Amino acid sequence: xxxxxxxxxxxTPGQKVVLPQEGDKVFxxxxxxxxxxxxxxxxxxxxxxGDFDSSGKRFPETKDPSGAQYSRFKCxxxxxxxxxxxYRSSTVHNDVPLERxxxxxxxDYRFRVISAATMYPFRVFVEGHRxxxxxxxxxxxxxxxxxxxxxxxxxxxxxxxxxxxxxxxYLLVAGNIRRISAKRIPRSRSYYSL
Length: 194
Description:
Blueprint: E1 26-34, H1 40-49, E2 62-63, E3 69-71, E4 77-80, E5 99-102, E6 108-115, E7 122-126, E8 132-137, E9 140-147, E10 150-152, E11 156-162, E12 169-176, E13 187-193
Parallel strand pairs: 1-6, 5-13
Antiparallel strand pairs: 1-4, 2-3, 6-11, 7-10, 7-12, 8-9, 8-11, 12-13
């Protein structure tokens, strides 16, 4: 319920950093959780009393896999760069076009992932690409770390993707890591094409 965006500070020449830092081989992906129906008064009431479906049944409190509570709110959908699907049921959604990142085969690309989420952490990965390489966290370069995915909550993580898979379309996925009873877990998805 406000404006947000990215502010990228490029290191000065001579600093030891992993390239690329800017240009057509760098993408920004802002991840956000988005609840559709809530104003600040309604959110306050839900914080106190919980959230209920149309039949009056309370949604379970959202927790991480360790049992730590995140929120009494249901996460409606996730967004990448302001785009994402809102599922009204397990098969019906709003048909919004997803964010696209165009890459070339066998080139390295830096993705600057920024979490603008308010309540939920997300697990981020690229379908069909293992591994990806973490390069920086909260603006600080780190030794390149090979991972299959990472978890992000209000912070910034840069990762390197080598577009070495078969030519096609792959999903950049930000899946909510909350634990709830066998219900659909909202995900943000974004395509990138080789």
